[in-house]
Design a protein that fits this description.
The chain is of the alpha/beta class. The chain is globular and about 85 Å long. The N and C termini lie far apart (about 90 Å).
C-alpha cells in the first residue's frame, strides 16, 4: 500500500518515535522556519512534554535544569544559524557536569555552506570541544540506507547521553523545503515504517559494557580522610559510606553542594565546618592524612585543596566515568561506580584510622558550629540569609544555589540539618549565566518546593527567564541577594586598586527589581530586616506561585563578619595544642 508523505516530516516522525521508545519525556523548542519538521513532529507527540521558549539560551538552560532533576535526557530544538550558538553556554555546563541533553539543530543543506546564503553558518560539529557525541544527518530520504543512518546515529546519541559517556550530544539535521506536513514529496510503501520500527528496537536494545575493578587496580593500606564534592549520590552509596567511615574511624569532609549535609539521617563522621578547621594552623599539626579518597567533582574549598596538597597524602579520585577531578594531576583516578568501590574496599583488610583524630575533629567542628551562630545570626547578612533559609526550608525541598559568593557561603558556613534537601547548582563551568532558567527547570520537573539563592549580577544576566516562570506558572522562590555589584571581587587583591576596581570589577547595576518583577508578572517583596526575612520565608512556604524576595545587603559588612569569624575560630582552635 502506497502512502503519500512529506519526507522531512517522515524523517522527524521516525526520530520522534525513537525518542519515545527510549523513554524521553521532555523537549524544549525555540521557534524558527528551518526547524519546522523537528518542531511539528516532536510537538505533535503527546508522550513528550514540549516547552516552546523564545530565547534559545534560556531554553537550553531550562532543559539543563529538567535533565538535572530527572537524571534523564532532554531534547533541545533550534533553527539554523546563530540560534545554534546561543545553546553553547548550557552545553558547556552539561558537558562539564555530565548532564544528558540531546541537541537537535536544524540546518540548511551542506551544499549551501560558504555561499553567503542567508542564516547559514558552519554548524558541523560546532560544539566539538564540549560534546560527547556528534552526528550530521544526511538530507531526509525514503531510501532504506539513509533511514538506517538516521536511526543508528540517533540511537547512538541517546545511548551515549544516557549512560555510555553521559552528557550532551548533538545531532545536526539538514532540511530542504517544503517543511510542512501538508506538502507531499514522496509516495512510500507502508512496510518502510515497519522496517524503521524494527531498526529502532534493535538499536535501543544495546547496553553498555559493565566495567569492574579489582583490588589490583589500587593499593590501600589505610584511609585517613574522605572528601565529597558535587555529585548525584544514591542511597546505596550513602549507606555504604557511613558503614565504611564508622568501621575505619574515617572523617568525612563533604562539600555542602554534595547534599551530604542535608540528608534525612546525618552521616556519623561528617565534619561540616572543615573550612574553619583547615584555615587553622593547628590542624596541620594535629592531622596529617596519608591517604585521601575523593568522590564527586572538585571541591569548592580552595583551602581544603591546599591542606591536602600540603599534607602530601596519596589521593584516590573515584567516579563512574574516570573523570580527572584533580587539579594537581597526581591523584590515582579510579573508574568505578562509587558504591562498588566501597563494597570492594570493605572486603579488603585495611588499617583503622586514629579514633583520637576523629574525636578531635568532631570536637572542633562542634566548637566552630557554636561560635558561628554568635557571629552571623544576629544580623541580616549574606551568610545568615543562607542559614535562615536552611532553618525555614521545608523537608524534601530543592535548593538551587547560585555561583560566585552564594555557592561558597553555602559550603563554608552551612550546618548539617536532617531535612533531605536536594542541592542543585551549575558547578561544571561555574558561570553566572542561566541560573534562573536552570532552577526553573528543576522546579518544574521535580514538582517539589524549590528555592533559588542568587546574586544580583547572575539575576540580571538571566532576567528574561522570568518569562518562563510566568508562562508555565512555576512556583520558584527566588532569594535575590542584592549587594549591587560583583562583591566577590572584594576578596581579591585587585580591590586595593580602587579606581579600576570600582569601575571595572564592582560594576553596580542600580536596577529596580520591583519594576522588573512587575513587568514579568512575578510577585515581589523587598526585605528590610532580619525579622522581615524570617517572616517572608515562612509566608513563601505557603505560596504556590513564583516569588522574588529581594534582600539588599552590605557586602563589606558581611566581609568584616567573615574576617572576624576566621580570626576568632583560628584562635579558638589554636588553644587545643
Amino acid at each position: 500500500m502506497k502512502i503519500k508523505i512529506n519526507r522531512n516530516i517522515l524523517w522527524t516522525t521516525l526520530l520522534t518515535d525513537l525518542f519515545v521508545n527510549a523513554g524521553i519525556k521532555y523537549a524544549c523548542i525555540s521557534p524558527g522556519s528551518r526547524s519546522t519538521p523537528l518542531t511539528f513532529a516532536i510537538a505533535s507527540e503527546k508522550k513528550i512534554k514540549s516547552f516552546p521558549i523564545v530565547d534559545e539560551r534560556a531554553s537550553a538552560f531550562f532543559a539543563l535544569g529538567i535533565a538535572k532533576s530527572s537524571n534523564s535526557p532532554v531534547v533541545i530544538v533550534t533553527t539554523s544559524g546563530t540560534a545554534t550558538t546561543e545553546l553553547y553556554p548550557a552545553i558547556i555546563e552539561a558537558y562539564q557536569s555530565r548532564v544528558p541533553l540531546i541537541v537537535c539543530t536544524a540546518d540548511r543543506p551542506s551544499y549551501l555552506r560558504n555561499t553567503g546564503t542567508n542564516q547559514t553558518i558552519n554548524q558541523k560539529n560546532i560544539y566539538k570541544n564540549h560534546i560527547r557525541y556528534f552526528a550530521e544527518l544526511p538530507l531526509p530520504s525514503t531510501e532504506r540506507e539513509n533511514i538506517h543512518a538516521l536511526l543508528s546515529r540517533t540511537s547512538e546519541a541517546i545511548l551515549t547521553a544516557t549512560f555510555r559517556n553521559k552528557g550532551p550530544v548533538h545531532l545536526n539535521f539538514q532540511f530542504e523545503k517544503p517543511f510542512e506536513p501538508d506538502s507531499t514529496t514522496d509516495f512510500i510503501d507502508d512496510n518502510l515504517i515497519l522496517y524503521a520500527n524494527e531498526l529502532s528496537e534493535k538499536f535501543l536494545s544495546q547496553t553498555k559494557d559493565q566495567e569492574t575493578i579489582s583490588d589490583r587496580d589500587f593499593k590501600l593500606n589505610s584511609v585517613d580522610l574522605i572528601t565529597i564534592g558535587v555529585g548525584k549520590f544514591n542511597s546505596d552509596f550513602l549507606k555504604l559510606l557511613d558503614k565504611f567511615s564508622r568501621k575505619y574511624n574515617i572523617p568525612i569532609f563533604a562539600d555542602a553542594n554534595s547534599g551530604l549535609r542535608f540528608l534525612k539521617k546525618k552521616q556519623s563522621n561528617l565534619i561540616s565546618n572543615y573550612e574553619a578547621l583547615v584555615r587553622s594552623e593547628n590542624l596541620a599539626v594535629k592531622f596529617k592524612p596519608q591517604s585521601v579518597i575523593h568522590f564527586g567533582r572538585n571541591l569548592t574549598s580552595q583551602s581544603l585543596e591546599e591542606f591536602i596538597i600540603r599534607s602530601k597524602a596519596k589521593r584516590f579520585v573515584v567516579n563512574e566515568f574516570g573523570d580527572r577531578f584533580d587539579s594537581t594531576k597526581r591523584a590515582k583516578i579510579i573508574k568505578s561506580e562509587p558504591e562498588k568501590f566501597i563494597e570492594l574496599v570493605l572486603q579488603s583488610n585495611i588499617n583503622k584510622a586514629s579514633s583520637e583524630i576523629l574525636d578531635y575533629l568532631k570536637s572542633s567542628d562542634k566548637k566552630v558550629e557554636e561560635f558561628k551562630h554568635k557571629i552571623f545570626r544576629k544580623s541580616l547578612n549574606e551568610v545568615n540569609i543562607i542559614l535562615e533559609l536552611l532553618d525555614k526550608i521545608p523537608v524534601r525541598s530543592n535548593l538551587f544555589i547560585g555561583n560566585s559568593l552564594p555557592v561558597r557561603d553555602l559550603d563554608f558556613f552551612s550546618s548539617a540539618v536532617e531535612k533531605e534537601i536536594n542541592v542543585f547548582q551549575n558547578r561544571g563551568a561555574s558561570g553566572i549565566d542561566g541560573i534562573i532558567s536552570s532552577s526553573l527547570g528543576v522546579a518544574l520537573e521535580s514538582k517539589q518546593q524549590t528555592y533559588l539563592i542568587i546574586g544580583d549580577l547572575s539575576f540580571y544576566y538571566d532576567l528574561n527567564s522570568l518569562l518562563i516562570a510566568k508562562q508555565y506558572n512555576i512556583p520558584l522562590k527566588i532569594i535575590l541577594i542584592n549587594n549591587n555589584g560583583g562583591a566577590i571581587f572584594n576578596y581579591l587583591p585587585i580591590a586595593r586598586q580602587k579606581e579600576i576596581f570600582n569601575k571595572y570589577f564592582l560594576t553596580p547595576l542600580n536596577f529596580n527589581v520591583k519594576k522588573l518583577s512587575e513587568s514579568f508578572g512575578i510577585n515581589y517583596k523587598l526585605v528590610k530586616s532580619l525579622y522581615e526575612f524570617k517572616k517572608s520565608l515562612s509566608d513563601a512556604n505557603k505560596t504556590n506561585s513564583c516569588l522574588i524576595l529581594e534582600v539588599r545587603t552590605d557586602s563589606l559588612f558581611t566581609k568584616s563578619l567573615k574576617e572576624k569569624f576566621w580570626n576568632s575560630t583560628n584562635k579558638i582552635l589554636s588553644r587545643d595544642n
